[in-house]
Design goal:
single chain, mainly alpha
Length: 152
């Protein structure tokens, strides 16, 4: 385990997590119509903490591998898009614009997962839960957008 590298990736995830800590869902989100399958609020910080650890481990593994250039670039892209989504959705209340970011995020995470598998099998496997979670988040964003056309 290369601890310095792991903590560098974890710090990048921490920047993304900070947007979630600073921009809380609040009354606006509470007032939205949401699908019945919306997870309870406590699930989100638990899921994201776990995911950020996994994707930091994956990033560390890939950073140490040969032929990692595209994989590292995709990791950087997905964390940038991850950081951008929360301020747009919860901060600006722009559900439709957040959906656009979410589509880009999903594509980046899917491409990153695929590329990671080609560089380091275990890194690709570590990214699979993130791809699943982003898929759920995309469906939730889309459902919320459809249920609240006045707020989109």
């Amino acid at each position: 385990m290369h601890w310095t590298l792991f903590f560098t990736y974890l710090a990048a995830c921490g920047a993304a997590a900070a947007t979630g800590a600073m921009i809380q869902p609040g009354a606006w989100y509470d007032g939205l119509n949401k699908p019945s399958w919306t997870p309870p609020r406590w699930v989100f910080p638990v899921a994201w903490t776990s995911l950020y650890i996994l994707i930091s481990l994956a990033g560390m593994r890939v950073a140490l591998a040969e032929g990692n250039q595209q994989a590292v670039a995709l990791w950087s892209l997905q964390i940038a898009l991850n950081t951008l989504w929360t301020p747009i959705y919860f901060g600006l209340h722009r559900i439709r614009a957040a959906m656009g970011v979410m589509v880009c995020l999903w594509l980046a995470v899917a491409a990153c997962t695929w590329t990671f598998f080609g560089v380091d099998f275990w890194a690709g496997l570590l990214f699979v839960p993130y791809l699943i979670w982003v898929s759920i988040a995309a469906a939730l964003n889309l459902s919320t957008m459809r249920l609240n056309p006045q707020s989109a």
